[in-house]
Design brief:
Blueprint lengths: L1 H17 L2 H8 L14 H7 L2 H25 L7 H17 L12 H11 L1 H18 L2 H18 L4 H17 L1 H9 L10
Helix pairs in contact: 1-4, 1-5, 2-4, 3-4, 4-5, 4-6, 5-6, 5-9, 6-7, 7-8, 8-9
Length: about 200
């Protein structure tokens, strides 16, 4: 029963994560975001290619894609006799897999930062507060979104440890860190070569 329940939650979260917020919002503005800029459907590429309002709308939608399944996993885990925290973690993993490899976009997607923030808000809220501060400071210092996002990812396991979250949360934070770094592989290569894009706050 537990394995069946976990599978249902994982698949349902994957479908939710696959909903291409960036593609939908960009199309409302007459733009095919998958053929613009980096080809990512995430908020950053939408903001660059379509505009600030569209980018912020995508960020919020992706944030709630991570938040809602994690919250439901936390509250409904008793049906499968599984601890709520573990179910919330499983739900967030499903969302990130769907977001990064969307079922509706030929398995392309975004980088998962906004959705990670939404899930972390439910699972480890204290780490989110520090992580967002890290993101904001690094973004305003460098104007490079990927630098801010990677430092945000690196802060998650560190702050989970410092705030004395349970071991499973720290391990999960490390998993999130690896997922985010993996999804930013191209960005890391551009950072190493000095060709990564800088983001103008005026955009």
């Amino acid at each position: 029963m537990s394995w069946a329940y976990c599978t249902v939650v994982l698949l349902a979260s994957y479908v939710v994560g696959s909903l291409p917020s960036g593609v939908i919002v960009a199309r409302m503005h007459g733009v095919n975001i998958l053929s613009c800029g980096s080809g990512s459907s995430g908020a950053t590429n939408v903001k660059r290619s379509v505009g600030s309002r569209a980018g912020y709308a995508v960020f919020l939608l992706d944030f709630f894609k991570g938040l809602v399944p994690s919250l439901l996993g936390l509250k409904m885990a008793f049906h499968g006799n599984i601890p709520g925290m573990r179910m919330a973690m499983l739900a967030l993993v499903g969302v990130l897999l769907g977001h990064n490899f969307s079922l509706f976009c030929k398995f392309h997607g975004g980088k998962g930062i906004a959705s990670t923030m939404g899930g972390i808000f439910i699972i480890m809220p204290k780490t989110l507060v520090i992580g967002v501060l890290v993101w904001l400071v690094l973004f305003h210092a460098t104007r490079i979104v990927s630098v801010a996002s990677l430092c945000f990812a690196a802060s998650i396991p560190l702050t989970a440890y410092l705030f004395a979250y349970p071991r499973e949360c720290i391990i999960f934070a490390l998993v999130l860190n690896l997922i985010i770094f993996w999804s930013h592989g191209e960005n890391i290569a551009r950072l190493a070569s000095g060709t990564e894009h800088r983001f103008s706050i005026k955009n």
